[in-house]
Design goal:
single chain, mainly alpha, 0% strand
C-alpha cells in the first residue's frame, strides 16, 4: 500500500499561477511559514496613497522636456555675422589691384562651402541625436586643409619670391598702413600681417558666436566638435582674405592657414569645457 502524497508546498502553488486555490502549509515546512508570516506583516503596512507636495510638484514640472531651437535657428547668428564680415572686408582689407574680383570668386566659394560644412557638423543632431558620423567629424580637418591649399591657388599668381626686409622696414611699412590707409604700400610682409590679423579678428568673432550657439549641445567628443567649430569659423573668415587679399599665393595661403591652426587648437580646448552637456 503506497504512502499518501504530500500536499504541494506554498512556493509551488504560487509558481503554478494565482488561479489555483492555496492549500494549507504542511507542518514542518519553514519556507511556507516564513512566507505566510511575511504576508501577514505586509498587510499591516498598507497605508493611504502618497500625494506629492508643492516642492515635489515643482521639481517634477522642472523635469518636463524643454523645446530647443533647431540647428538652423542656432546657426543663423553665425551666418549673419559671416555675411556682414564678407561685406565689410573691402573696407577692412582694401581691394587688391593685382587681380579682379571675379578671379577670386571660385576660391572664396570653396572656402565658404567648407566653412558651411563645418557648421553643419556642429549643429546637426544626426539620426540618433548624437551628431553626424564620427568619420566625417574626424576627416573634416584634412578636408579643410585641402580646401585652403586649393583656394590659395585659385585666382592667384605665383609672383616673385618674397624679398628680404629688415625689421625697421617692416615696422615702417606697417605704420604707414595704419597712419595712411589710403596709401599703397608694396610690402609683402606688411600685406601678410594685415591679412592674417584681419582673418584672426573675424575668426575670433565668428568662433565666439559659434561656441555660444553650440554650448551644452554636444554629447559625444566635445573636444573634436570644438576643433571643427574653430576650423569652420576660420574658413568663413578666410573668405574675406580670399576676396580682398593680395594675389601672391604664398601670402594668401599663410594668411588663411595660420588663423585656421590657431582656431583649431583653441577650439579644441574651449570645446571640452563648454560643449559637453
Amino acid at each position: 500500500m503506497s504512502a499518501p502524497a504530500a500536499p504541494p508546498s506554498l512556493v509551488s502553488q504560487l509558481a503554478s499561477g494565482p488561479e489555483r486555490p492555496l492549500a494549507g502549509p504542511p507542518p514542518g515546512d519553514p519556507t511556507d511559514r516564513r512566507l505566510l508570516a511575511l504576508d501577514a506583516a505586509l498587510g499591516h503596512l498598507a497605508g493611504p496613497p502618497a500625494r506629492p507636495g508643492p516642492a515635489l510638484r515643482a521639481a517634477l514640472d522642472a523635469l518636463a522636456p524643454v523645446a530647443r531651437p533647431s540647428g538652423l535657428a542656432r546657426a543663423l547668428p553665425v551666418l549673419g555675422a559671416a555675411l556682414l564680415a564678407w561685406a565689410a572686408s573691402p573696407w577692412l582689407l582694401g581691394l587688391s589691384q593685382r587681380e579682379s574680383l571675379v578671379t577670386r570668386l571660385p576660391g572664396a566659394a570653396l572656402l565658404g562651402l567648407a566653412g558651411l560644412g563645418g557648421l553643419w557638423l556642429g549643429f546637426s543632431r544626426g539620426a540618433e541625436g548624437l551628431g553626424p558620423s564620427i568619420v566625417w567629424r574626424r576627416g573634416y580637418p584634412s578636408l579643410a586643409a585641402l580646401a585652403v591649399v586649393i583656394a590659395s591657388q585659385l585666382g592667384g599668381s605665383a609672383g616673385p619670391a618674397l624679398p628680404a626686409h629688415g625689421a625697421r622696414q617692416w615696422v615702417s611699412a606697417s605704420g604707414a598702413m595704419v597712419l595712411s590707409p589710403g596709401q599703397s604700400v608694396h610690402d609683402p610682409m606688411a600685406t601678410l600681417g594685415e591679412s592674417a590679423s584681419a582673418a584672426l579678428l573675424l575668426a575670433a568673432v565668428l568662433g565666439g558666436l559659434t561656441f555660444r550657439a553650440m554650448a551644452r549641445t554636444v554629447p559625444v567628443s566635445p573636444g573634436l566638435a570644438g576643433a571643427n567649430a574653430g576650423i569652420a569659423s576660420a574658413l568663413l573668415a578666410a573668405v574675406a582674405v580670399q576676396l580682398t587679399g593680395d594675389g601672391h599665393t604664398g601670402t594668401r595661403f599663410t594668411a588663411m592657414a595660420v588663423p585656421m591652426v590657431l582656431s583649431m587648437v583653441i577650439g579644441s580646448l574651449v570645446g571640452r569645457r563648454t560643449m559637453a552637456p
